[in-house]
C-alpha cells in the first residue's frame, strides 16, 4: 500500500450522508494527494467531521463511493484501520496514566510488536520532547502538551494516513505553530494528512484545501489557486468613520461582504467594475475615505464561496 507522492490517497465520488431529512454531506467529490497536508475548512456544522468519519470507515455513507489507500470503504474498513491514525479535537487519552504508560498501552491496543514497542516509544518521547516528563500524568499537562501526546499516540503505529479533526482548537498560538511543524515533518516522511479546521491561518498552511459549507464542497485547490480567483475583487477602505462607511458599502449592488479589521474596512465584491459605485457610496457619508485594491486572502475565498452557495440555495 505504498503510494508515490503524486498518487491519490483518498478518492470519493458522490459522498452523501443523511440523518433523517437532514443532508449532512451532499454529494462530495474528493481527491486527496498522497504525502501532503490536505485541509478541510468550514464552520461548525459544515459536514467536516461527518465526512472524516465516513472516510475512516467509522460511519456508513448514505450514498457514493470511497477509496482510501486503494481499499474500498466501508467494505474494507477493518483492513484500513491498521494503516490510519485518527486524532480528534477532544483529548481522549488516559489522564491517570503517565506519558510513557499512555504510549505503551496504545502500542498494545494497536498491535505494535512487543519487540518493537520500547524502541518506538523511546523514539516518540524524544521526537515530541517528553524526555523529562515520561512519568507525568497526562491529566496534569497543559493543553499544548496533551496535544503533542495525542499526536504521538496517533502516529505510534506509523500510519500512512492521518486524520486530524479540529486538532488545535483548544491550544495557544505557540503550541499550534509547534504542532504544525510536526505535521510537516510527518508529510515529509511520507504520511498523508487530512486536517479539518475553521481557522484561516491554519488553512493557509495546507498544501491543498477544500471548503465545505452546509455539507457541500464549494471550493477546492491550493491556497494560491483559490485566492488568485478573486484578483481584482478585494479592497480596503481607510476612513475616520468605519461604521458609516460599512453601512454605505453594504447597500452597493455587487458588494458581497464588508468586514471591519481595526480601523480599516475589508471589502469583497462579486465581480470587477464595482469601484465607481463604492466611491459614490462612500462620498455620501460625508467623511474622507480612501478606497484601495488589496490582495485577496483565504477569508475572502471562504466568504465568496459560501455566499455563492447560499445564493444557489435561496
Automatic annotation (TrEMBL):
The keyword Nucleotide-binding applies. The keyword Hydrolase does not apply. Pfam families: ABC_tran. Keywords: ATP-binding, Nucleotide-binding. GO terms for molecular function: ATP binding; ATP hydrolysis activity. InterPro entries: AAA+_ATPase, ABC_transporter-like_ATP-bd, ABC_transporter-like_CS, P-loop_NTPase. SMART domains: AAA. Residues 10-239 form the ABC transporter domain. This is ABC transporter ATP-binding protein. It comes from Rhodanobacter lindaniclasticus.
Amino acid at each position: 500500500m505504498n503510494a508515490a507522492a503524486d498518487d491519490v490517497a483518498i478518492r470519493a465520488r458522490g459522498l452523501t450522508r443523511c440523518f433523517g431529512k437532514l443532508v449532512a454531506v451532499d454529494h462530495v467529490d474528493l481527491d486527496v494527494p498522497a504525502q501532503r497536508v490536505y485541509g478541510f475548512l468550514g464552520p461548525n456544522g459544515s459536514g467536516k467531521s461527518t465526512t472524516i468519519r465516513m472516510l475512516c470507515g467509522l460511519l456508513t455513507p448514505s450514498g457514493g463511493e470511497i477509496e482510501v489507500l486503494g481499499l474500498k470503504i466501508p467494505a474494507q474498513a477493518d483492513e484500513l484501520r491498521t494503516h490510519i491514525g485518527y486524532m480528534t479535537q477532544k483529548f481522549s487519552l488516559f489522564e491517570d496514566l503517565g506519558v510513557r504508560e499512555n504510549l505503551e498501552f496504545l502500542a498494545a491496543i494497536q498491535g505494535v510488536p512487543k519487540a518493537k514497542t520500547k524502541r518506538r516509544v523511546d523514539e516518540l518521547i524524544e521526537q515530541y520532547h517528553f524526555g523529562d516528563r515520561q512519568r507525568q500524568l497526562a491529566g496534569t499537562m497543559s493543553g499544548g502538551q496533551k496535544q503533542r501526546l495525542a499526536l504521538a499516540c496517533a502516529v505510534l503505529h506509523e500510519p500512512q494516513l492521518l486524520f486530524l479533526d479540529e486538532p488545535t482548537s483548544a491550544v495557544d498560538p505557540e503550541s499550534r505553530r509547534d504542532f504544525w511543524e510536526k505535521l510537516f515533518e510527518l508529510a515529509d516522511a511520507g504520511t498523508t494528512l487530512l486536517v479539518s479546521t475553521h481557522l484561516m491561518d491554519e488553512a493557509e498552511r495546507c498544501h491543498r484545501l477544500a471548503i465545505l459549507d452546509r455539507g457541500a464542497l464549494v471550493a477546492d485547490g491550493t491556497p494560491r489557486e483559490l485566492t488568485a480567483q478573486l484578483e481584482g475583487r478585494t479592497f480596503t477602505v481607510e476612513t475616520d468613520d468605519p461604521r458609516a462607511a460599512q453601512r454605505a458599502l453594504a447597500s452597493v449592488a455587487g458588494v458581497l461582504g464588508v468586514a471591519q479589521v481595526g480601523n480599516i474596512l475589508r471589502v469583497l465584491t462579486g465581480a470587477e467594475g464595482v469601484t465607481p459605485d463604492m466611491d459614490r457610496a462612500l462620498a455620501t457619508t460625508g467623511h474622507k475615505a480612501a478606497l484601495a485594491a488589496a490582495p485577496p486572502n483565504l477569508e475572502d475565498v471562504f466568504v465568496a464561496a459560501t455566499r455563492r452557495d447560499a445564493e444557489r440555495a435561496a
